[in-house]
Specification:
The complex is a heterodimer. By secondary structure, chain A is of the alpha+beta class. In chain A, 34% of the residues lie in helices and 16% in strands. Chain A has 2 domains: 82 residues, Beta-grasp domain (Ubiquitin-like (UB roll)), CATH 3.10.20.30; 65 residues, DNA polymerase, domain 1 (Orthogonal Bundle). The chains are: A alpha+beta, B alpha+beta.
């Protein structure tokens, strides 16, 4: 009865990811992060704390940087999602990706996709941020390796 | 996460009907920054989740005569970027700007901050200091208005009726010359729960006496509220240093009386006093 009803309900989710329309049948309890990584196999977006504290799951949704772990997948219905896979390719890197590599802003690389997406969102809103504004723009992204300085420099190098 | 049905209506009416039908088996979601972590730790297991984000009637920031109306699903980012709010309630903008980080602010909502009623909320105390009122609606009881200072029953619990949805926040514009300010202390500069925050609204009269004063400390009592025993020391008086000392003493006394002596009291008493003294001085001295 109610139990069976709860177990079997899957809902169609339709959204745009990196410019392509996708449709997936999912359980309502799925988060956007889970759907991106598991159903859509876009594993560039990382799973970290699962509660919006670390920022490794940062994607851009309808133009705004969000923690994908805090978006129920069905809340992404009809929305435009951009992940790190949509930024560039190894053959054609996004300027930020190239700058991160050149500036030594990547150590273990785990925070990098989230950092890139936050940086993209920041520069769209504010193409010429001051250092304090860059820091604020990535204040939702933790990095355990670099100490942030080279990440900030990598973003500044793109701004010049 | 235990299984639930998800419903995302486009109108308040549909939401009210759903909520009145499902009752306490249903939890509302807006930005999800409080709800989703709770669902993950299974401290909550609703059978139904009602999404409020697609309801246009709950969005927006509008001037209505001598008040400003704020839709409850307005995000912290939208508050920060609002010219109207920056002009009329800088305190509210500062409070919203202090929440989390960019990603959290892009999703977290003012309505959620109120409905979650955390003792450490940042925006809730700011709206208390601004004497904000809530517009609530339910299928059973219709519409009503509730002052925010009557809306919080206990930590994490509002006085909303079981099938009530917060549909608006109304704040009266401040009189010309009224100043307001906000400060927050946390373990970090961002992504930090408030260890202490402070919202102050201050208006002086032409004789340099305090005409209006509202002081709301947050994260120091189970429920944030105006501390009238402190405000009363300065009302109608010139804000001389000695009087400010008496005021902040009354403030910290109230905190200890209400919250009891805790491990943090030795820290919070002097820090609350210093913070309040500093913010009061700053507001008194600016034009």
């Amino acid at each position: 009865m109610e139990g069976a009803e709860r177990m079997s309900e899957k809902t169609l989710l339709r959204m745009e990811v990196n410019g392509k329309t996708v449709e997936v049948l999912i359980d309502p309890t799925r988060t956007l992060l889970q759907v991106l990584r598991e159903e859509l196999k876009l594993t560039g977006t990382k799973k970290g704390c699962g509660k919006g504290d670390c920022g490794v799951c940062t994607v851009i949704m309808n133009g705004k940087a969000v923690n994908a772990c805090l978006v129920l997948a069905l809340q992404a219905e009809g929305k435009e999602i951009e992940t790190v896979e949509g930024l560039g390719t190894p053959e054609k890197l996004h300027p930020l990706q190239a700058s991160f590599i050149k500036s030594g802003a990547v150590q273990c690389g785990f925070c990098t996709p989230g950092m890139l997406m936050s940086a993209v969102a920041l520069l769209r809103k504010n193409p010429h941020p001051k250092e304090e504004e860059i820091k604020r723009g990535i204040s939702g992204n933790l990095c355990r390796c670099t100490g942030y300085i080279k990440i900030i420099k990598a973003i500044q190098n793109v701004v010049k | 996460m235990q299984r639930f049905h998800f419903y995302s209506p486009k109108s308040i009416e549909e939401a009210l009907t759903y909520l009145s039908d499902k009752g306490d088996r249903c939890k509302m979601i807006a930005g999800g920054t409080d709800l989703i972590p709770a669902l993950r730790t299974e401290s909550l297991h609703p059978e139904f989740v009602l999404d409020l984000l697609e309801i246009e009637q709950m969005r927006g920031i509008r001037e209505i005569d001598h008040t400003i109306w704020i839709g409850p699903t307005t995000t912290f980012t939208e508050i920060v970027e609002s010219d109207l709010l920056s002009r009329h309630f800088p305190l509210l903008v500062q409070a919203a700007a202090s929440v989390g980080g960019p990603q959290i602010r892009n999703r977290g909502t003012v309505g959620g901050n109120i409905a979650n009623a955390s003792p450490a909320a940042d925006v809730l105390p700011a709206i208390l200091a601004l004497d904000g009122e809530l517009e609530l609606q339910s299928k059973t009881y219709g519409k009503r208005r509730l002052p925010l200072d009557e809306a919080i029953a206990s930590p994490y619990r509002t006085n909303f009726r079981p099938d009530e949805i917060l549909t608006g926040i109304v704040i009266k514009k401040l009189e010309e010359g009224t100043k307001c300010g906000f400060e927050k202390l946390g373990r970090r500069n961002a992504m930090a729960r408030a260890r202490m925050n402070l919202s102050v609204v201050l208006q002086m009269d032409r004789e340099e006496r305090v005409k209006e004063l509202r002081i709301v400390p947050g994260a120091v009592m189970p429920m944030a509220r105006r501390v009238k025993s402190a405000e009363g020391r300065l009302l109608g008086q010139k804000p001389e240093a000695s009087l400010i000392e008496i005021t902040i003493e009354a403030l910290s006394k109230e905190m200890v009386q209400v919250a009891g002596v805790r491990w943090s009291t030795g820290y919070k008493v002097p820090v609350l006093k210093n913070m309040t003294r500093r913010l009061l001085r700053e507001l008194i001295e600016t034009d």
